Amino acid sequence: MYAIVDIETTGGHASANGITEVAIFIYDGQEVVQQYETLINPGVPIPRYIQSLTGITDDMVAGAPSFEEVAADIYALIHDKIFVAHNVNFDYSFLQYHLAKAGYQLRSKKLCTVRLGRKIVPGLPSYSLGNLCKSLQIAVTQRHRASGDAAATVKLFALLQRQDVNSAIAHALNAHSKEQFLPPNLPPEQVTALPGSPGVYYFHDQKGKVVYVGKAKNIRKRVNSHFTGNSASRKRQEFLRNIYSVSHEVTGTELMAHILESVEIKRLWPIYNYSQKHIEFKYGFYCFEDQQGYLRLAIEKRRKYTMPLHAFPLLVQGHQMLRGLIREFDLCPRLCFLQKGNGACSPIPDHTCRGACEKKEGPETYNLRVKAAINHMQQQQPSFVIMGNGRDAQELSCILMEKGRFYGMGYIPRDTAVTEEHAVKEWLTQYPENEYILNLIHAHAGNNVQELVKFS
């Protein structure tokens, strides 16, 4: 038995909107054996644009029952039936949410006539209820009213049953099928074809634009996990409606998937990715030449599209490192911006500053020590690769850290000897780094020493 359902609401997601009308047709596969419909007082004003769309006004629902008053009748009708609707997750999420508030837990199998329409009568220009019925010459009366749309869905479902030569309905109802949980516009064959490998996946909207990027240890399993449950939140419902396709890129390891996800989020800026979009207030060493020709080391907040000589998360770490360079290479604290004001440079009496700040030492001599300090600082940073599984048995994955900086990653033939940085680079793709990626790599390196190949 099927419960073919349509509802009208005050908005697009259940957790912040009410139901204004419900129509339920109980269909035995041959004919409608029972029909139920009622207006419902949502307890909140109906927005004017929805009143214009549905024709249901505040005055019409003023004397109607609340949902709590009819919840028992609705639950009794549908809880042991197969729940059928056009874009089923919308109607189901509303009824499940409001029934739960009234004390009833709805757990039904679902069928979506949008998804079934795409499989059984493919190639039509549109699968909205109105356009689909028009293409299939199904008469619709009282469009955008629950009873009219539910009656049209009954006729549509009956036609789909008759034309279902490949058993699409039976497949959707199969206990092992994930299809009933998928968004209505996402082709199930795309999800079925996803690999069970580590990698990154991309959800695309109707125009092909990437709207979400995710990483996974098992791409197919992770993608399917997005569609389990029936959250009534606005964000989730909007997210599901806007997924039209999924693509992916396999990586050799889960660490590479994490890195690539971070790179892609910052490159594509997808609208449904909320993490990793914050501005990173990380600090870095920068070097520039002033108007007098002196090279000056400075600590600044790292800005987008800038590449510091060395980066660090805390300002105090930078100050400690810079003071060490000043002592070891006789640099001027005033020229390094560690001493301010117009007084004498404090290290001059101890001869650790040789007078560059007072022009007693020329820029040519002073700059040699600045360059030596920079070289020393960079040489102190480790260079290593993290080796791991490749995408197949013939290759290994490789992530290169060069003097404390993330260079890039890629894949090398399994029989390649990894002894020098320059020999590895030809196999790798360069990627931008960020604090999240550096923390990932250092944490992994610390916990997986056996995967490291260090360079001197």
The CATH topology of the largest domain is Nucleotidyltransferase, domain 5
* Envelope shape: elongated
Count of the separate structural domains? 4
Helix share, percent: 25-40%
* Distance linking N and C termini: 72 Å
What does the main sheet amount to? 5 strands, mixed
What does the average pLDDT come to?
89
Radius of gyration: 32 Å
Number of helices: 16
Q: What's the CATH C level of the largest domain?
A: Alpha Beta
Structural class: alpha+beta
- Low-pLDDT sequence parts: none
CATH architecture of the largest domain: 2-Layer Sandwich
> Care to count the β-strands?
16
Overview of the molecule:
- With 456 residues, the protein is of the alpha+beta class.
- The chain folds into 4 domains: 179 residues, Ribonuclease H-like superfamily/Ribonuclease H (Nucleotidyltransferase, domain 5), CATH 3.30.420; 81 residues, 3-Layer(aba) Sandwich (GIY-YIG endonuclease), CATH 3.40.1440.10; 98 residues, no CATH class; 73 residues, no CATH class.
- The chain has 16 helices and 16 strands.
- The strands form 4 sheets. Strands 3-2-1-4-5 form a 5-stranded mixed beta sheet. Strands 15-14-13-12-16 form a 5-stranded antiparallel beta sheet. The chain has a 3-stranded antiparallel beta sheet with strand order 7-6-8.
- α5 packs parallel to α7 and α12 runs antiparallel to α16.
- The mean pLDDT is 89.
- This is GIY-YIG nuclease family protein.
